[in-house]
Amino acid sequence: MTDLVTIASEGLSARINPFGAELSSLTDAAGREYMTDADPAFWSGRAPLLFPIVGALADDTLRSGGQSYRMPKHGFARRSAFGLKEHSADRVVFRLEESAETRSCYPFAFALDMAFMLSGMTLEMIATVHNTGGEPLPFSFGYHPAFAWPLPGSADKAAHRILFEADEPRPIRQLDMASGLIAPGGAPTPVKGREISLDPELFRHDALIWTELASRRLSYGAESGAWLDVAFPDSPMLGIWQVPGARYICIEPWQGHADPLGFSGDFGEKPGVVVLPEGESCSFRMEVTVRPA
Predict the structure, then answer these.
(1) Which of 57, 107, 145, 196 has the fewest Cβ atoms surrounding its Cβ within 10 A?
(2) At 87, which CATH number?
(3) For the chain, what is the HEC assignment?
């Protein structure tokens, strides 16, 4: 089993697994856990990184330059061992670089740095993608953290809600259950003004997906209980998901999403994909501020 790497501030402690550079635990000074219990009866993930794709590709196939490559759902970063690049008391940086294994399914040169930093009651995460090759680099990236539902010290699950920073009247997208791809059209938003009242029934048809999101910040919690303030200034899309009945809620800022049903084009032409010029870098920041009960 891989040893977890720990960082801490005066208010929080985080443990990260170098396998996948996955946030495994976020606790406050009283020892209260704000991440999932990872019950395998529902889902054993904790906070996988989605790279170089978000969601599924049609037939699990990435098409680029006239060639086809097998690519699993959400990409390979979550199943890759990252190297330890930096580590101090309150900061750690991991790196994943191209290899023969990555090139077998993704024929591009890249480096992915994943930084975690704690300050007071805030965890800051910054993913930076570097194009280390001699051609444009197409990719998507997403966060997939599973937070405790209910939060520690909070009210009943049914009292929890999500408050967006702005009204979100636009329709959401849903997955085609047979293929796992984005279904055509949209569905009415579950947001009433700026608020979603959380209910497992919302997820009977998988994730709620926003491809046109006004907000770059939201809060999750319950009145008279704990809250998490979540900021994602660089991610224009969002997924919210759980396996119905589980004790977590995933709040997932994304750059990109699953293939639209019927899409069969080059990966670089897919909606939501970033095409990074040679020698350039692109970062995606996510901040989680804990307000204990």
Answers:
(1) 107
(2) 2.70.98.10
(3) CCCCEEEECCCEEEEEECECCEEEEEEECCCCECECCCCCCCCCCCCCEEECCCCCCHHHEEEECCEEEECCCCECHHHCECEEEEEECCEEEEEEECCHHHHCCCCCCEEEEEEEEEECCEEEEEEEEEECCCCCEEECEEECCEEECCCCCCCCHHHCEEEECCCCCCCEECECCCCCCECCCCECCCCECCEEECCHHHHCCCCEEECCCCCCEEEEECCCCCEEEEECCCCCEEEEECCCCCCEEEEEEEECCCCECCCCCCHHHCCCCEEECCCCEEEEEEEEEEECC
pTM of this structure = 0.97
pLDDT tens for the chain, 293 residues long, are: 579 999 999 999 999 999 999 999 999 999 999 999 999 999 999 999 999 999 999 999 999 999 999 999 999 999 999 999 999 999 999 999 999 999 999 999 999 999 999 999 999 999 999 999 999 999 999 999 999 999 998 778 999 999 999 999 999 999 999 999 999 999 999 999 999 999 999 999 899 999 999 999 999 999 989 999 999 999 999 999 999 999 999 999 999 999 999 999 999 999 999 999 999 999 999 999 999 99
Q: Quote the tokens at residue 67.
A: 């060639």
Phi then psi for residue 86, to 5 deg, are -145, 150
* Rounded Cα distance, 33 and 24, in Å: 10
Q: Are 277 and 125 in contact (CB under 8 A)?
A: no
Is there a contact between 140 and 282 (Cβ–Cβ < 8 Å)?
A: no
* CA distance readout (Å), 49 to 32, 72, 226, 290: 24, 13, 25, 21
Which range marks the domain in which residue 228 is found?
5-291
